[in-house]
Amino acid sequence: MYTTIFEQDNNREKSEELKSIKVVYDSIPELVEIAQEVYDKWDELDIDTYAGGGICHIIAEEIGSYLDSLGVDTYISSSNFEQHVYCIVRVQEGVYSVDIPPSYYEIGSGYSWSKIPDVTFDESFIRIDMLSPDPEDIKFYVYE
If we measure between CA atoms, which residue out of 109, 122, 46, 80 comes closest to residue 88? Predict the structure, then answer.
């Protein structure tokens, strides 16, 4: 299958509107602060807010909101392999996951998680992994 010149130009325009993955990497210090703040507010006795579950969904929402405010095309996604929520971003260089593995700050499974005491987040906690080099492949990772 081939693409027409019009389709190529249209795709080029779309990818030029996308931010670079560099914006995400440059934001790592802020993402660490965001995650630490969510963790520090986590009160396991607050059943109305946390219902015995973890905070990955709150961390993902806050990180996603921040990246979105920078103009990064950001989506919140749930894992098909475990009960976990993280971000997916579409940038000029492709599609990436942006995540902090839950094992760094909580222990448990399913919908029952407990806080690991006294965790201090740092830049090594932020995982940025390429899922595809093609930004248009977002359709394989996010359902709209």
Answer: 80
